[in-house]
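Let us begin with a simple case.
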Amino acid sequence: MAFLDRIDELCELRGITKRTMETDIGLASGASSKWKKGNPSTEVLKTLSAYFGVSSDYLLGIKPHAKSGKGVLIPILGKVVAGIPLDAIQDILGYEEISADLAYRGEYFGLQVRGDSMSPRMLEGDVVIVRMQPTAITGDIVIAQFEDESNEVKSCVKKFVKTESGIVLQSYNPLYEPIVFNARRAKEHKFQIIGKVV
């Protein structure tokens, strides 16, 4: 199997396009089309290996199996607390390993917890694994995003509760008040769910 064929296969398994892959790893649009004529640089190869959680040898066709060690590496995109600017979540702090089986069931990323609003279940410095999805059911732990009163975009990790009048984001630590959104407030503050902690 040619190098680009393996990339196509891995993108298909992840449910993403090559354009999405290029954007995620910082390549120009269409950069992967050059791989029809030859393999990428060693640096790009290492980045692709980490991105897909496979060995470089697998990408190059030297080894037939995709697994690199025990699982698949996903990026840790930043720190999440009870309220931080969204762009703080875009920095890659490192990588976390999840099982290949789990990785192929959706798109995942890690976030490092800061603060104690979710203690004792989640402690300062813990890394939570998040499956990207825009919906949740009562009891799910979610990464939620919304604008605060000064229109600054905030993100937080909380327990999601759906009520008759709207949405409640609850902390495990009783020292923190729940964040409540009725339908009107959710719309005004552009509330959305980024993903579910798995």
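The second case is a distinct protein. As before, the sequence precedes its structure tokens.
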Amino acid sequence: MEKKQRVLIVEDEKNIVDILRFNLRKEGYDTQEAYDGEVGLALALQEAPDLILLDLMLSKMNGFEVCKRLRDQGRSTPVIIITAREAEKDKILGLDLGADDYITKPFSPSVLVARIKAHLAQYGRLKQAGGVDRNQLQLGSVLLQKDARRVFVDGAEVALKNKEYALLRFLLSNPDIVFSEETLYERIWGYDAMGDNATVVVHINRLREKIEKDPSHPRYIQTVWGAGYRFKP
């Protein structure tokens, strides 16, 4: 029998832990729980889970520190931050410390499960390809180097503007998940930004012009009619 993938839940609110445990086990995952940051880090290092769901506001050690120490130990386990903290600076800090995704409460359990599946699948592909480099994302012929903020397609560097880069990084980090124009606008520009969802369409089209061989028939950035866009590995 194939071994079940295990998700470590590091969260101090028992009702949220119960909801996560129920939904994850229903999907066929094993779970392990920690209710403070110190225990969470110890379990992450000792038990080597397949993925970690990490709250930020934890006792004894906050989620930022847990994530930092995990990466300082050279662990590449996918980490999804789940938190009530919505400030952009917190999202940026979490991602800069090595988190793979950032989801704010309240969240849809089905969306969270979809994110978990996507990150586990991407992590599995990277390991099969010869290892995991936390500094870069690669799907197909598209390679994104995080620290250098550089993008290559088929080995050739592509020049992207800031929002084009942010949009591509977000899509690459969440392969095969469909995002509506509204969600993409919120995640990349924020609710307080000036503009509307047409901004997303313009940037999607610009990205296709730069990374697709045939922008009119995109291989990577696909339109899901009536739903939004996804990056297809």
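DSSP finds eight helices and eleven strands in the chain. The longest strand covers residues 6-10.
Keep these points in mind for the review questions at the end of the chapter.
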